[in-house]
Amino acid sequence: MTGKLRVGITIGLGQPDETLWNNGIKQNAVFLAEALRHCPNVESTVLVNTTGVPITAALPWDQTRWPVLSFDDAKDNLDILIELGGQTDPVRTAYLKERGTRLVSYCCGFEYIHAAEAMMFGKKMWDGNLFVNQRYDALWFIPQVAGNTQSYLEVMRRVPGQVVPFVWSPVFLAERSRNFPDEGQYRPRQGPRRLTVMEPNINIVKFCLYPILIAELVYRDRPTDIELLQVANAFPMAQTNRDFIALMNHLDIVRGGKALFTGRHDTPTFLATNTDIVLSHQMENPLNYFYLEVCWQGYPLIHNATLCDDLGYYYSGNDAEAGAQRLNEVIDSHDENAVSYRDGQRAMIQRYLPDNKDVVSTYSALLENLMKAPLR
Questions:
Q1: Strand bridging mode 277-279 / 226-231
Q2: Which domain does 40 fall in, by range?
Q3: Where on the tree of life does the source sit, at the highest rank (predicted)?
Q4: What is the pTM of this model?
Q5: Total domain count for the chain?
Q6: Which helix (DSSP H) or strand (DSSP E) does residue 365 occupy?
Q7: Cα–Cα distance between 215 and 314 in angstroms, integer?
Q8: Residue 38 to residues 65, 80, 332, 364: CA-CA distances in angstroms?
Q9: For 134-155, how does the pLDDT look when each residue is reduced to its tens digit (9 = 90+)?
Q10: Which runs of consecutive H residues, i.e. helices, occur in 223-356?
């Protein structure tokens, strides 16, 4: 390989001022771009919008640091296009291949689970217009989705994949939090605790039920220590889902008027203004931006995410009793070491940062090997 590489990473803008907090895809693209900027074999990295939404100054990131171009403006100046947040259709794929551009699928979603649920439960996904691109030069999977999705996509796309480093940065978290007291970081607070559950509740992967059960167990033993259980992204269920309502009405914490089911909130704001302790649960999602956001800011996170079990307060599997024990531990002793906890969390999270030497060296090698392999 001669010369340095020009790399594009796709995004799919839905509107010119799209928020970074409605899902992790835009942040994922920016963080990957930041990591690739540190690679010695990369000349430039741009974000490539695959939709017709205009690119304006309203985008919520610094376009000097992370430039954004339309596909048409970028397509002739790329050695590699990493498809992350917007799909490359057959016509665009053919154009890139004719130019010798390598095309990588960067898989950061639970595609197998989404596909299975769509087919089993009648959810609209492809609406009959499925395009399976079989001309990728590489499939890259972040660790938390590889277990359920890698083999599925390898078969469908007819190319072997590999697991690549997960990348995260506190840059947007810091920007969103800078005007809050203490920059949104956790500070000990007297009195009963405000518990927060912020699972998306769009599928079983991250659902609020087990965190609610953990809170229920602790509330039964020490109700005066719980001020409120706040369950975000649950308002529609609490209003209209008769099964959810019936189940919740069997819980003491609900019947005692200590549970609040709310809509969607951005993480930095809700942490800084409403939260003392975060309860979480996952199935097939053992590493997530949300965990890192909570821990970076020093909030106690009670979770069962196996790929970051050294962060926060870990409990195993679906063990609500174990989760309740961790919650009791947080209530009783977390505030004694709040500052050292935050500093320790930040030290461990360094392994995911875009300038981490292992992250940078791994991506440099991935790019080099990609260019050495024959074009598909």
A1: unpaired
A2: 5-169+353-372
A3: Bacteria
A4: 0.95
A5: 2
A6: helix 357-372
A7: 15
A8: 12, 16, 43, 9
A9: 999 999 999 999 999 999 999 9
A10: 235-240, 242-248, 252-255, 267-274, 289-296, 320-333, 338-349
